[in-house]
Predict the structure.
Amino acid sequence: MEKFISVIIPTYNRAQRLKKAIDSVFAQSHPNFEMIIVDDGSDDNTVDLIKNYNSDIVYIRQENRGPAAARNRGIEKARYNLLAFLDSDDWFAENKLETQIKSLQQNPLYHISHTNEIWYRNGKILNQKRKHKKNGGDIFKQSLELCAVGMSTVMMYRDIFERYGLFDENLPCCEDYDLWLRISAEQEFLLVDEPLTLKDGGREDQLSTIYRTGMDKFRIQAIMKILASGRLTAEQIGIARRELERKCRIYGTGCIKHGNVEMGKYYLNLPETVFKQQIA
């Protein structure tokens, strides 16, 4: 079982928050890691921040291509078979890596795991809604409904990417939602039921805020992809179709409400069009 791990941190103009993420990795009780920071074209003082640390950080800079491309670059450069991810505005509890690695060692049938997390907003702990409760095992249905796995909670083996592909770089957001669908259609997730990841939400620079009125558009794309993949069982196809109809109804109705009638009608009619194509 792997004891060495690559921790991948994508970042873009987050120098003020990145330090907390980096320090939380260096403070880990599990010492056997490499830290890979992929700078996705930052124009703030990110590079100066990195220079203040020693050479233990693998620093990669690329032109701005989005979080999916940044994570993919980190995966390609990682030396180890076991991978963990940390968004640059989140941070780890000091025993995160140690606890999660031990859990995978004790449950060798699992190739991907996630943990619980604590959410902060304006410095205060934010109570999560019931629908955000983390689950283990077969999480395909929950993953259709929402992004059921926190990106910074994940630890997985490289063979998951070899089997299901990397993050979809055509998606400006919801690229994690898309990946969890592909994986959870066939793999069970190991839940480490401890809050080992911490995140500070509700800021204007977060993708969930930037795309808050259009995130379902990208989730709809992801559901259409998984339906067309040929990987789903008959039961999963039924679940995915119902969720596609629900999301298209919500998004289409919202478009019409905000004056984009043509777009709204497109999404309201989309499930029927998709289902006819699949039958044909």
Q: What stands out?
A: The chain has a mean pLDDT of 92. Strands lie at 5-11, 33-40, 57-62, 82-85, 90-92, 112-121, 124-125, 155-157, 190-200.
